[in-house]
Amino acid sequence: MKKTIDEHAERFSEKAEEYDESKSPEYRACADLVVEHAAPDAGDTVLDLGCGTGAIALALAPDAGEQSSPSGRSQADHAERVIGRDISEGMLEQAERKAADRGLGGVEFDEGRFREPNVPDDADVDVVTTNFAMHHLSDAEKREAIDEVAALEPDRFVLGDVMFFDEPDPAEPFYSPEVDDPATVGVLSDALTDAGFALTAVEMVHEQVGVLAAERVPDADG
Ligand SMILES: C[S@@+](CC[C@H](N)C(=O)[O-])C[C@H]1O[C@@H](n2cnc3c(N)ncnc32)[C@H](O)[C@@H]1O
User: In this structure, is residue 222 part of a structural domain?
Assistant: First the structure.
């Protein structure tokens, strides 16, 4: 990580109020694909890591209705319970405010980080999502985070983020080398496979943005 957790948290809290205002078409497409691939069943529990102001968590929340996706596209699938976790108090406050404004229940936000997600004891996580957040971690930290996700034994993990399908190019949009540390698609795919996931979809939104969907391979002993 190029900044400490506290530095990242402070950076995001400072821009939390304006965060939703300027989103690129690629960000929206990525978020929509994360929601689409998450496809929770009605009784599922979803954990959204690096939830920010709630783009993914709120779209998947129970009662989120048909206008809930980040691009306003219709989304049919909603979980029973959605747990959003982030390191930034300011971003979490925005997510909570939006949930209240929309009258959404079944969605809860609190402090939690990729490698210490702070999952409530009574939660049995079926689907883990993350969008545009994991690129703050180094490749080794991403591996640890993916192992942490695998330990929760979800059926599915959907990872949308800045990721390199080709040579990294900081002149292109989507990341700042001083604060961000995106991985190649190969590094992320290997980490998912090594953690016991099988890739079910690789979606390229841009040469530097993509979504990986993965299902957990059941243990050989069931
Ligand atoms: C670019 S925002 C994306 C927010 C949201 N997922 C979305 O799609 O709009 C990145 C978020 O990741 C959070 N974040 C950064 N490092 C994190 C970590 N180690 N654990 C949890 N969240 C983290 C930041 O606080 C920020 O809210």
Answer: no
Any idea what the CATH number is for the domain that residue 67 is in?
3.40.50.150
- Residue 47, in any domain of the structure: yes
- Structural domain boundaries, residue 204: 5-216
- Record the tokens describing residue 23, joined without a space: 């989103």
Ligand 1 pocket member 159 (CB < 6 A)? no
Buried b (16+ CB within 10 A) or exposed e, 124-157: ebbbbbbbbbbbbbeeeebbebbebbbebebebb
Structural domain includes residue 221: no
Q: Is the CB of 13 under 6 A from ligand 1?
A: no
pLDDT of residue 71: 60
Q: Is residue 69 part of a domain?
A: yes
Q: What is the pLDDT of residues 145-166, one digit of tens each?
A: 999 999 999 999 999 999 999 9
- HSE-up (13 A, CA, CB side) for residue 211: 24
Ligand 1 lined by 135 (C-beta under 6 Å)? no
Atom of ligand 1 nearest to the CA of 54: 5
106 Cβ inside 6 Å of ligand 1: no
**Over the stretch 44-82, which tens digit does the pLDDT of each residue have?**
999 999 999 999 999 999 976 654 566 655 445 789 999
Check pocket membership of 50 for ligand 1, CB cut-off 6 A.
yes
Q: What is the pTM of this model?
A: 0.94
Split into its structural domains, the chain has a count of 1
| Distance in Å, CA 123 to ligand 1 centroid | 21
